[in-house]
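All the exercises in this workshop are built on plain-text protein records. A record pairs a protein's sequence with a compact description of its fold. Read left to right, the backbone structure tokens trace the chain's path through space. Once this layout is familiar, the rest of the handout is easier to follow. Here is such a record, shown just as it appears in the course material:
>
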Amino acid sequence: MAEVLSASVDVAAIRARFSSLRQGFAFFDAPGGTQVPDEVGDAMARALREASANLGAGYATSMRVAKILEEAEGKAARFLGCEPGEVIFGPNMTTLNFALSRTAARAFSPGDEILVSCLDHDAGVAPWLEIAHDRDLVVRHVELHDDTTLDFGDLERKLGPRTKVVAFAWASNAVGTVTDARRVCDLAHRAGALAWVDAVHYAAHEPIDVRAIGADVLICSPYKFCGPHLGMAFGRTEVIERWRPYKARPAPTSPLGRRFETGTLPYELLAGFNATIDYLDSIGGFAAIIPYERGLGQRFLDGLSGAVTVYGRPGMDGRVPTFLVNVAGVAAADVAARLADAQIGVWAHDSWYSLGLYQRLGYRDKSVRIGFVHYNSTDEVDRLTEALNGMRPA
């Protein structure tokens, strides 16, 4: 297994690019945010030193800002599979989702419906609940099968003439389950609804092509794939060109995506994003990342004892390498604390912000979330499984 894993990426060379990985602490908290390679921080610092300005002036620092933004739009478009003018930046996914959902809902009428998934992070649900409260709309939840996959039969039953949006998570931030995005988008469009994708967790592990799945809106977060804290969205031209944005009146309305960006953008973060895309390209992109991460996930599953319960999908099929677990007889908070003492970083939480999923998993109180990314090593995975298997009630 180790030889197969190391063939897809040079993990030692990758880890050498992260100062945070040099102290021996094993970070398995990537679902909450990844570590950042040094070159990303260097790019951000350089932008603050050399491009501390705003758009539109005729001097060098302003021109550098314009170049950073144009580069970021181009790299985001390549990452998402869209045109640069369809890219929208914001402070984070949640803020973007609140802003764009309210923009879309300007054209909705009382009684119109939004469908969300029980697999979703609440950042993909709460914006619709809030606008539904304000505008007398209806939010309906699409159910899950016992294995945490989306119940497409329930989705088809709930689609109707009043459905305006089908919003869903492409991959669960809690249990890693992947949803067939193309199938959801096709069903949404067949009903005349928008297909609205939360790709925050998916974007860290799999390539995105918004055209291939037929998304109308898709939002993700670069800090989940070794970038700075930032939100990034795609809006299909034919959809967002009809929307009236919330914006200051003199602000630019071209390119199209910029009309939905409020205030001054964080240009230093965009410089860091540009360096993030360069970093991912330099290690072979998802062609290298996917087999390596999947190998880590399978190694983890193969090494667990029967005392460790894994929730959600069995094996690596239909999931990304994110796992929710509990250890028999040991409270999740205690598991996380013991692992932290062993220089292993995981979290314990109750709902993981997936309120529709939480009640279906069957554990009491809390669980432990473990997420692998391409900078994790096989030795770290083995340390983790050994620590989990060796835990005993206090």
Q: What stands out?
A: Confidence is low (pLDDT under 50) at residues 1-6. Residues 323 and 379 are 18 Å apart (CA to CA).
